[in-house]
Amino acid sequence: QVEVVESGGGLVQPGGSLKVSCAPGGRDFDASVMGWYRQTPGNERELVAQMFSDGRIEYADFAKGRFTIARGNGKNTASLQMSSLKPDDTAVYYCNADIGNGPQALRIWGQGTWVNVSS
Questions:
Q1: Each residue of 47-88: pLDDT tens digit?
Q2: Rounded Cα–Cα distance for residues 44 and 85 (Å)
Q3: 39: exposed, middle or buried (Cβ count in 10 Å: 0-12, 13-18, 19+)
Q4: How confident is the model at residue 74, as a pLDDT?
Q5: Disulfide: which of 25, 32, 55, 96 matches 3 by Cβ 3.0-4.6 Å?
Q6: Is residue 101 over pLDDT 90?
Q7: How far from the centroid of its chain's Cα atoms is residue 45's Cα?
Q8: 115 burial via Cβ count (<10 Å: 0-12, 13-18, 19+)
Q9: Helices vs. strands in the chain: H and E counts, helices first
Q10: Quick one: pLDDT band at residue 39, thresholds 50, 70, 90?
Q11: pLDDT of 71
Q12: Torsions phi, psi of 104, nearest 5?
């Protein structure tokens, strides 16, 4: 099956760094977009960063200058390097892979990995 699995979450102190990674958990696939989202209880999932197949990258304002997304193999893996972490960054971070383009794209989500920024 087409699925992605996140790893690398955990507890980190404010100001620290953490890297979360995403990789296929099932069959191989080619993604048009790889992205990272995050969600806190009671809130909607929000975009953190995403990278398109042409290399274009989009970051949320809160991530600019602190987070870096990279596609490790160019098609279905993605990492998110987070630095200068703040308590407000605490959330479940989800990997997203889009197969296809536009409204017909299949959006694949991982189960999420918890990032807790706390002293």
A1: 999 999 888 999 999 999 999 999 887 789 999 999 999 999
A2: 21
A3: middle
A4: 77
A5: 25
A6: no
A7: 11
A8: buried
A9: 0, 11
A10: very high
A11: 87
A12: -90, 0
Integer Cα distance of 50 and 80 in angstroms: 10
Cα–Cα distance for residue pair 87/90, rounded to 1 Å = 6
Look over the chain and give the mean of its residue pLDDT values, rounded to a whole number: 95
- Which residues on adjacent β-strands are paired with residue 103? none
Q: Is 81 helix (H, G, I), strand (E, B) or coil?
A: strand
Long-range contacts of 43-46 (CB under 8 A, 24+ apart): 45/94
Question: Would you give the DSSP letter of residue 61?
Answer: T
Q: Any idea which residue has 């009671």 for tokens?
A: 42
**Amino acid found at 92:** V
In the chain, helix, strand, coil percent, each to 5?
Answer: 5, 50, 45
Q: What phi and psi values does residue 72 have, to the nearest 5 degrees? A: -65, -40
Rounded to an integer, what distance in angstroms lies between the CA atom of residue 52 and that of residue 70?
Answer: 10
Portion of the chain with pLDDT greater than 90, in percent: 88
